[in-house]
Write the structure tokens for this entry.
Amino acid sequence: MPELPEVITVVNALKTEVIGKKIKNVLARDSNFIKEINFFDFQKSIVNATIIDIQNRAKHILIFLDNRKVILSHLRMNGKYFTYKSPQWGKYDYISFVFSDNSVLNYNDSRKFGTFMIRDVELLFKTKPLKDLAPEPFFIKVDDFYQKIRKSSRSIKAILLDQKIISGLGNIYADEVCFATKIFPGKAAKLISRKEAELIIDFSKKILQESIKLGGSSISSYTSLNAKEGKFQNFLKVHTKQNFPCSNCQTKILKTVIAGRGTYFCPFCQKLDNF
């Protein structure tokens, strides 16, 4: 699933391609991606509107229109966007935004988990799904984060994946943050010290910023706009590195399941008693 760096990369690419374009029509080969309302109401809400801005909130893409509507797009497991100079359907393209200049923005999703919703701009952050999101690592306060986790018996990995506690991290970056802080991912959150909580936030910011600079991590199916690959996967320390030597101590990286997710860690650097 695309995480914060990947979503920001997609948003930045979309900004260069579609801001200022007027939506002439919306077509669907599968309308099940549209949630809460039917496709015709979705179409009616955005046709003849112009895209004036594109932002993200955690893993959600927010497409702002000049009619005070906002399209919420979530890529889920492997959603992608493609632009074309004229209307056409690529393999696994299911939603097509046709612009007044006849160019198109197509949403592509082979696994069909992605979603689209419509919000009035005034209600955007007052309604689900955005109202329940915690701050992203760049904006969260260490003390607020620490108070949220200090009594939890859940693993720190589960905490980092919980978008109501800290948003934007997913499986890749949770593993990388745990490695950078030398914390075993299965450690109970209530055993995390304030010092460790501060390290978690600091390294989350650092790792995410580095990944954003490199266009995210192209692992499995992720690519940005028009199939452009990221490069941060070349700099991952533990995620996907099972049986490779740890970059710090040369111990073999192990893989286990924590919080229901495949989890990579160094058994020497990330011992439970490191702090």
Remarks:
- The first strand starts at residue 23 and ends at 28.
- The chain is about 25% helix and 20% strand.
